[in-house]
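Bug: token stream looks shifted between consecutive jobs. Job 1:
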Amino acid sequence: MPFALHVNAERWHRHLRTFAQATTGLVPVIKGNGYGFGRDLLAAEVGDLGLDMITVGTYPEVPGALDAFAGDVMVLTPWRPFFTDVTYDARVIHTVGRIADVEALAAAPTGTRVVVEGETSMSRHGFDRHELAAAVQALGTLEVAGFAIHLPLAGLGNNLDEAQSWAAVLETSQLETTTMFVSHLTPGEYAVLRELRPNLTIRPRIGTSLWLGDLGAIRARATVLDIHNVGRGERIGYRQRPMPRDGYLLIVAGGTSHGIGLEAPKTASGIVQRGKSVARGGLEAAGFALSPFTIDGKQRWFAEPPHMQVSMLFLPASADPPAVGDWIDVAVRYTTVTFDSVDLL
């Protein structure tokens, strides 16, 4: 397919197995675009790893997860009474973080399971620690599958201290659970937390480090679809921009619908900015933007902002051009990219 993720299957699977074996209680996170792989593929991989639970991001992701995975499915987005797409299933675990929501969810079918979330320094969702007693009183017949905290990114603050503090809150609360789901500690911090709180079952929720932990096993690649010789001043594309010098115009797979150039490339505007660009040299001074595509060993320039499904690149005459049908490498943000195909090779 034109815009593809090529995966060294043996190397990637080896990484997944090693990571899972080294991470006690692992709960893989599978949300959004599936970290570039797609959610269904990742759910199948978790099944092969023999793990019992996954975490998805939103309720619309739940039905597909239940179909692709035989274990439990936790939803990161907190339950709200106005959601119309909630799946009530014995394998679904809902997140709660407000008293009013617990009271409303208590009317759900018998056997509905929840995790109670604490509001960390992320300040995103969850109960203040002083609200837990009231939350316990409101639970009714809801089954508590655990307590959860979502911390800032690992390494940015005192995550271990904060996790320790919440673990103490859990142990002194009336919540009938000893399971604590934690996001964003380092492997060493998880180990320390287990040592400090041996009566708790600590379960790491991890996505990026699991799926994208060995970037050497994956390559984002685009197909060259067309190539044209262009002369200096020749106008091309939707915007009929003149080419800065003689060279090649390449049309390659990968555009905004794939996640290429989600933010329109910024071109130099104004005398001061253009002056700074001139000082740096290169095509930026002419209003061009650097693309994520690599050809002949160098990152190349967009000839104009990317189209919906293809990009137009300028290649100087001094470079060695690829042929139509060749693959070229492309640097992507795996959490926002959408590939035409994911090929396990």
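Job 2, same session, no restart:
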Amino acid sequence: MKYVEPLFRPPAEADSLIFQVAYGCPHNRCKFCGMYKTVKYRLRPEDEVLDEIAGAGKRYPETARVFLADGDVMALPFERLKTYLDALHAAFPKLARINVYANGSSILGKTSDQLRELRQRKLNTLYVGLESGSRNVLELFGKSESPEGMTEAVAAAQKLGFKCSVMILVGLGGKKLRGEHISETAAILNRMQPKLLSALHFIPIPGLSLPDGYVPVTEYEAVDELKGILEKLELEHTVFRANHTSNPIPLSGRFPHDKAALVRTLADQLASGTLDARGPGALPLFL
């Protein structure tokens, strides 16, 4: 397999076979994200990808899960994406699902018929970065998507049978927009009703160009913020995870069944006196 670093995947794709069909992110202007800042966005040559798929099919014929990288694979032209899905099915007879990063605009950029065709080819989970339900927070950090557009995209995809794994960034609003970030993120998630929800803790890593005057929340405030969001959620059938290394406390559960237990776990941690109330806490060795 040929990869151009850096290469990223969601934690849930640890056991998936990864094909890099593009390099970088087509937007790449979000101030909270340093993932692809060293990479110029471009599509990988189609014949190169198809050759790699065919070769991998001979070496790993038992493959059941595939993840297509990079940053927003749903933004690929429909015909090219469909060609890759067909090639994957030809190479891997036991293939059960294919997952990708997506964005609101790239989902809505496909017609309903096109989305239906992709779903029929077992494109399954779309990892969508909501980050915040607050338009002010998103604009502050240069994300071109709107909460309303992402809600529309998730609804359109889930109606056709896709699973949308929606990601939020706890602490993204900083101290100034903290309350707005909590309330509006919960409100948008309640409208979205995502099948999967992941919470990551926003960590201002070196090299990020943060907005002027931005003051990050402390570790204590971040945990309290997540508790505030979860308390406001009214989700009917959602798997929740906060198991990324950025999170001070690993959590997982199902809404609505585990909501009270999740909130109680966070409340106990807040009362324990172990969280850093003055700074970001101990940073993970890797993200």
